[in-house]
Design brief:
The protein is α/β, with parallel strands linked by helices. 41% of the residues lie in helices and 18% in strands.
Length: 415
């Protein structure tokens, strides 16, 4: 028999022992980052991974989540392949990771959104949550919407609506050429451009509407020659990564000096490739600030990021900051890392970004509602250039979150 004093001493020893052992609170919350880390789009994927890891480190320095747990972002190379992405998703699930991030290629996103939903239905005890920071095919938050998928970037329709407002305001514009990558996103961009221009400026003639293989064209000079021959006064393109870089180089080499209206024509070598020939001509639709920085907090974050990477690159994807911060806030709100509880906490969440915008995660389709900006490629008024080129993006106009919002056809199945 143990008397009361012995029991009290034993309880104290056990309590001390428990404190000495690692606790659940010390376990990191891991995020599987599934994007291209090799191949033609490696520069974009690697840059995104760095920005996600940098954001997680900033959150960890401020105390992490759930009273001290750290966020850890782990990279998984999908080689921009939907098939390889599903292999990496299995690795993520096998490693016990509950959250995934992906942004490059809506083709990959289409594969992941289906696979995550099916997995979560089969294995409710091993659910994962999919955080889409940049794959903007509108269908992902419309007919293909899922409770387990959240998009933190404006979709292609929202962006095209803002771009075509700018184009429509130019009464001299009469002929436009559309060129893009031959997959779901490129097709969505082309369809949105045709639709919006026909509504806003039916007098504008679309003199070319062309898709090219994604990641396989090294020399875009034949495409540039066709654009020149068409008599186009401007180009609309959703090209990104290596395809935007090579398109820019070909346009510069050929002396094509007409305006380009783009989604991703900046950073990762693209700004340098555009150079002097694009000043005042290349415009980009995007979230977040460019120049001038909207807040000192954003200015200081940019400086910290550039210092960490020896000025090799800029923090080019503010949506990644939003994604990781909103995940951290949802985990804290839910007081859990259970994906179902975190998803519920994300629905309807309002978040004030580091550059001062208030964004909202619409509960009906999990599409983030945000202001959208149009910026121009220039070397004037630039505090932060890109690619050490002396050129950067200067904000020309802004569309409020209310005006940028588009309706959804999502009919979400909830657990």
């Amino acid at each position: 028999m143990i008397d009361r004093r012995q029991f009290t001493r034993l309880a104290a020893v056990l309590a001390a022992g428990l404190v000495a052992f690692p606790t659940l609170a010390a376990d990191p919350v891991r995020i599987g980052f599934i994007d291209p880390l090799s191949g033609p789009f490696a520069a974009v994927g690697t840059s995104g991974l760095r920005q996600a890891q940098f954001t997680a480190d900033e959150i960890n320095k401020a105390g992490g989540v759930l009273g001290g747990r750290k966020l850890v972002v782990v990279g998984f190379d999908n080689k921009i392949s939907p098939k390889e992405s599903l292999i990496q998703l299995k690795r993520v699930i096998g490693d016990g990771i509950q959250f995934i991030m992906q942004g490059n290629s809506s083709g990959v996103a289409n594969a992941l959104i289906d696979a995550v939903a099916k997995h979560n239905e089969r294995e409710p005890d091993k659910r994962v949550l999919y955080l889409n920071y940049s794959a903007v095919d509108p269908s992902l938050t419309n007919e293909k919407c899922s409770y387990w998928h959240f998009r933190f970037d404006a979709n292609a329709d929202m962006k095209m609506n803002a771009l075509t407002d700018v184009i429509a305001a130019n009464k001299k514009m009469k002929k436009i050429y559309i060129i893009g990558q031959d997959y779901s996103f490129g097709k969505a961009v082309a369809a949105a451009a045709v639709r919006d221009l026909s509504l806003k400026r039916p007098d504008i003639e679309i003199v070319g509407n062309e898709l090219h293989p994604i990641g396989k064209v090294k020399d875009f000079s034949p495409y540039i020659a066709k654009i020149k021959a068409s008599g186009a006064q401007a180009v609309i393109t959703g090209n990104w990564g290596a395809d935007m870089l090579n398109l820019s180089k070909a346009a510069s080499d050929a002396g094509l000096e007409i305006p380009f209206y783009t989604y991703y024509a900046a950073g990762n070598g693209i700004t340098k490739a555009i150079g002097a020939g694009g000043v005042g001509k290349v415009r980009l639709v995007h979230e977040g600030p460019s120049n001038p920085p909207l807040t000192d907090a954003w200015r200081n974050l940019e400086k910290r990021y550039e210092a960490k990477y020896n000025d090799k690159e800029n923090f080019t994807q503010p949506r990644i900051s939003n994604t990781v911060h909103m995940l951290a806030n949802a985990i804290n709100k839910a007081k859990s890392t259970d994906p179902a509880k975190v998803a519920a906490a994300l629905e309807g969440m309002r978040y004030t970004t580091i550059w001062g915008d208030v964004v909202t995660m619409r509960a009906s389709d999990h599409q983030l509602q945000m202001p959208i900006r149009i910026s121009v490629h220039t070397n004037k008024g630039i505090e932060f250039d890109m690619d050490h080129s002396g050129y950067g993006l200067l904000t020309e106009s802004e569309v409020s979150a209310h005006v940028a919002s588009t309706p959804t056809t999502c009919k979400m199945k909830r657990p």
